[in-house]
Amino acid sequence: MSPIDAHIPKDTPIKVVPATALPHIDGALSYRANAPVRVGQLVSTPLGKREVVGMVIGAANDTDINGMTLKTVTPYDADYHLTPDMRQFMDWVAKWYLEKPGLVLKMASSVPSALKQDALTMGYHAVATPDQANTVRRQNILKNLSGKMPESLAAIRELTGATASTIKAMCKDGLLAAVPIKPDHDQQYQADSNLISGRQQKLTVEQAAAATTLADAVTEQKYTAFLLDGVTGSGKTEVYFEAVAEALKAGRQALILLPEIALSQAFEARCHERFGFRPHLWHSGLGDSRRRAVWREAIRGTPMVVAGARSALFLPFRNPGVVVVDEEHELSYRQQDGVRYHARDMAVLRARLSRIPVILSSATPSLESLVNVEQGKYQHIRLFSRFGSAGMPDIKLIDLGKTPAERRRWISPPLVDAIGKALEKKEQVLLFLNRRGYAPMSLCLSCRERIVCPNCSAWLVTHKSAGELRCHHCGHNSRFPTVCPSCQTEGMIMPCGPGVERLSEEVELRFPDARQGIFSSDAITTPALAEQFFNAVYNDEIDIIIGTQMVAKGHHFPDLTLVGVVDADLGLGGADLRGGELSWQLLTQVAGRAGRESRPGQVLLQTAMPEAMVLQSLIHDDRESFIAAEKAARREAAMPPYGRLAAVILSGREEARLMMMAKQMANDWPHFEGVTLLGPAPAPLRLLRRNYRVRFLLKSSREVNLQRVISSWLDRITIPSAINCQVDIDPVSFF
Does the domain formed by 643-729 have CATH 3.30.70.600? Predict the structure, then answer.
């Protein structure tokens, strides 16, 4: 037997990684087990005065023990064992992102209650005939339970209306008997492999060729990375569903990562239509019982489909068959706190270690993925046509220098006219503005001071509907001030610029008879609210959708023909490395919401920068020239994906002490060949949650092992406990 699957006898000293941050290199401590265990086994681990989840990583040697009296761990169910490829994946993640192994294990064991046995539910079954009961109610209960398996109290109540006291009294009188039952498995999530093929959707020739390639890769059970690159509305989901179907037919598990929790309800419906069952959802909004069920089925190897947020990547799948990353270009796949991993990149690693295919799907692929195609690391599958009779929308610019909006208005005359015509034809309109709230900042007209968050060096955003100012970084909120906090002048605070709430006011003034709805993270806070909103759109109960970037992600609104982008310049002209690429992706995606059925679509982009390359590439449908220019600029600057970056961020309450520590670190920099150290410098967001922040940026070629460089540098330095040091490998945000 391979050492990686080795069994370890009872009472043998073992090494266990507790699911928490420990300073040791491997994050492990020595214990004994009160029963035989195997490498990868999850165990209940004493740590101080508490019990945490731990994972056995092997036998301990004499050096590890060194005469210590060892505490004892208790193994969980034998099923709760992480496979060698899952353990290797976790080890890679910890080493790549320079994180503690225990913190990565914590993500893989994120539902501790799933490891404990559920309390058995009591069930009740009939032990008498209806004619033995002396009341009509009791006779009815016995009729409904006669010849059935034991039913829970809740099921009997739903079936007959009986109360708990009635059931208990019938048990006492010998009419019913109580027995423990295991909770029933929810049938709506179970895959029936006999029905999957019969529910296949009709595909175009282009789609069918792509689907066959993906399905064959699943059948072969070998690692291949695919970039499924198709225009908006080309049916990419139906194509990769065929790969998912192939995994299910083979009795394996499929993981589909989604960039936004609001997408899950619509996706759930599509999956049900295709497969006849609902996918298991996985996101932070789920209740503990649902998370428990998903985690258990994943680790037991039950054939299943999981559609989830980035954290679903760390579910301990026993028998994975395919991994899909939908909208692979989305930055929301990058975790920005805790373990700072990129779910897209780690999904590719997870698939490679499990020797299964991974499918990255997007209408606007990331530059990183396109370069991986060029280098032969990914196989490129293109879909050039929209599904059915739909054509690509007509995209035009509105030059605000020539046709500006009226004073204190935000919708220009050409866009107003186009909205009116669409409404006359009973077609739906989407107005896109990537700014939440009412106004992005508030200004005192007397002293010209902006209202700033007390915890962060960020402007407070006006939310008029709630009558308050909010910080979108730390969550601070306060009532809208009547007096300026700087100069004490009364009544001079003025909201500046538009957010979606302010745009909604203008729509109400211009189109009072139109029914409108706002789709932003402030208004749509749960999947249930998202489903309610989508249903209203599908049922033609909303004429004008006003949305932020949430509305650009994969939604299909059949009657939507006009998209108006209120400020197409947001994101252009800044210093962000990916600013142009992100603007191109976002505008392409939001434009793709128009004309997805038989009626033609129109997209109008309001801009003060009509010559910007991003906008010119959109109106001329010249994606290749834009991508070529982006690649050339990155290659010349040796920036990702042609070079590597890593950030080291220091934070603390005392700014002077922080700067002193940063300067000491700069002085201790050992000048590694091929690595440039930039900084220290105050972070663009200098104050965050009352902590001052200082950043270093390391830049190198692709060949340099930046992790080794950073580890070597930080090992030379003692950082005080009052200062937090966070390493960000391959950062996508530089705030």
Answer: yes
For the stretch 604-652, pLDDT in tens is 999 999 999 999 999 999 999 999 999 999 999 999 999 999 999 999 9
Query: Per-domain residue ranges for the chain?
Result: 3-109, 121-181, 189-383, 394-435+498-630, 643-729
The pair of structure tokens assigned to 352 is: 């490679």
431 neighbors 507 (Cβ within 8 angstroms): yes
Give me Rg for the CA atoms of the chain.
Answer: 29
Matching residue, tokens 């559920």: 118
Residues 6+ apart with CB under 8 A from 611: none
Query: What is the per-residue pLDDT across 627-639, written as a single tens digit (0 to 9) for each?
Result: 999 999 999 999 9
90 within 8 A of 108, measured Cβ to Cβ? yes
Interacting residues of 509 by C-beta distance below 8 A, sequence separation 6+:
none
The C-alpha atoms of residue 137 and residue 123 are separated, in whole angstroms, by 19
609 by Cβ neighbours in 10 Å (0-12 / 13-18 / 19+) ranks as middle
Give the angle subtended at the CA of 232 by the CAs of 226 and 235, to the nearest 5°.
Answer: 65
Q: How far is CA 725 from CA 230, 362, 650, in A?
A: 41, 35, 5
- Report pLDDT for 264: 74
Q: What is d(CA 614, CA 623) in angstroms, rounded to the nearest whole number?
A: 9
Confidence grade of residue 119 (pLDDT, cut at 50, 70, 90): low
> In the numeric block, which tokens belong to residue 676?
């440039």
717-730 pLDDT per residue, tens: 999 999 999 999 99
Answer whether residue 382 shows pLDDT above 60. yes
Q: What percent of the chain has pLDDT over 70?
A: 96
Q: In 69-147, at which residue ranges do the beta strands (DSSP E only) sit?
A: 72-75, 121-126
Residues 475-490 have pLDDT tens digits of 999 999 889 988 999 9
- Residue range 394-435+498-630 forms a domain whose CATH class is alpha beta
Top mean-pLDDT range of 161-170, 337-346, 462-471: 337-346
The amino acid occupying position 568 is A
> Which token pair is 733?
């945000």
CATH classification code of 3-109: 3.40.1440
- What are the residues whose beta carbons fall under 8 Å from the beta carbon of 500, sequence distance 6 or more? 433, 435, 436, 437, 518, 520, 546, 547, 548
pLDDT of 187 above 70: no
Total Cβ atoms within 10 A of residue 193? 13
- Could you tell me where the DSSP H helices lie in 97-162? 101-108, 136-145, 153-160
Cβ contacts of 615 within 8 Å, gap of 6 or more: 397, 568, 587, 605, 607, 609
β-pair type (493-496, 441-444): antiparallel
In 3D, which of 215, 201, 208, 213 has the Cα closest to residue 244?
Answer: 215
Residue that the structure tokens 């004493």 belong to = 46
Q: Where does 651-725 have alpha helices with state H?
A: 655-667, 706-715
Give the dihedral sign, CA 339/344/346/347. Answer: positive
What is residue 5's predicted lDDT score, i.e. its pLDDT?
67
Structure-block tokens of residue 696: 């270093």
pTM for this one? 0.89
Query: What is the pLDDT, as a whole number, of residue 2?
Result: 40
Structure tokens belonging to residue 402:
């020539």
Q: CATH top-level class for 189-383?
A: alpha beta
Do 394-435+498-630 and 189-383 fall under one CATH topology? yes
Measured in Å, how far apart are the chain's first and last C-alpha atoms? Answer: 50
Question: What's CA 400's distance to the chain center, in Å?
Answer: 36
